[in-house]
């Protein structure tokens, strides 16, 4: 498991999964290789997601909204972890991908669904990215290379249960 390959999936692959992919690739520095995809990709990355990443100093080159189809079949990269980031609390359907990898769910509200002024929307993206970053920092602390699939699953499920309040912040 070197690097550990992680796929973040959501429905549209335009915001949360993109933020997760770019941030883990940036923070993981070769230890992790992150991808993102959607079951019904929008075809474009949300500009507020790109702005949030750029503001955080995270490279945005090569990011795209894509179908999860490229992660199934013989030519697909092998995956170690698949993380859904849909908001099940909002009855948002989460895609399901099958394979021999650890699956977990790290739900969070969709900042792309927020309506209002650019300031309000930027704040929603910042809040989502803050929680994503917090969870990814917890992932980076794990000895994923030596953990069994069961241990990794338990740890990832625990990380997915973390909220903004656990980070002692409001995401702003």
UniProtKB/TrEMBL annotation:
Keyword Cytoplasm listed: no
Top-level lineage group: Bacteria
Keywords, sorted A to Z: Arsenical resistance
Sequence ranges assigned to domain Phosphotyrosine protein phosphatase I in this UniProt record: 4-142
The protein's name: Arsenate reductase ArsC
Species this chain originates from: Dyella koreensis
